[in-house]
């Protein structure tokens, strides 16, 4: 599953993730303060995110279908696929080039690798 969000949609999704469950009325107030949106704009963005399968609006209560962690995990995997032909080692090499990892970072990465190993 691939979900693409624009910058404003991403910021709006962050508001939902931080406050869920949140009513659409609360989102209208927050969006007016944060973005200067009218009520109709907020409801249009809610509808777009519902259509994309990111959130649901059940009788005026908005909750996520995909958690923030799941969403960013999907985005990261897509980035590695698109930019590094799916090669995690190539991504890590590019990410760490010219940068030293702290002992804690190296240990955390080793632990993730050990947990992800097949067999």
List its traits.
mainly alpha; Arc Repressor Mutant, subunit A; 2 domains; 3-stranded antiparallel beta sheet
Describe this structure in a few short sentences.
Helix content is 66%, strand content 8%. The chain has 119 residues and is mainly alpha-helical.
Could you characterize what this model shows?
- The chain has 119 residues and is mainly alpha-helical.
- The chain folds into 2 domains: 7-68, Arc Repressor Mutant, subunit A; 87-119, no CATH class.
- 66% of the residues lie in helices and 8% in strands.
- The chain is built from 6 helices and 3 strands, in the order αβααββααα.
- The chain has helices at residues 7-19, 24-35, 39-51, 68-84, 88-96, 103-116; strands at 22-23, 55-58, 61-64.
- A 3-stranded antiparallel sheet has the order 1-3-2.
- Strand 2 and strand 3 form a beta hairpin.
- Helix 2 (24-35) crosses helix 3.
- The radius of gyration is 18 Å and the shape is elongated.
Secondary structure blueprint with pairings:
Elements: H1 7-19, E1 22-23, H2 24-35, H3 39-51, E2 55-58, E3 61-64, H4 68-84, H5 88-96, H6 103-116
Antiparallel strand pairs: 1-3, 2-3
Helix pairs in contact: 2-3
* Structural class computed from helices and strand pairing: mainly alpha
Q: What is the N-to-C succession of helices and strands? A: HEHHEEHHH
Shape: elongated
- The CATH topology of the largest domain comes to Arc Repressor Mutant, subunit A
Look at the structure and give the CATH class of the largest domain. Mainly Alpha
Helix count, per DSSP?
Answer: 6
Number of domains: 2
- Mean residue pLDDT: 94
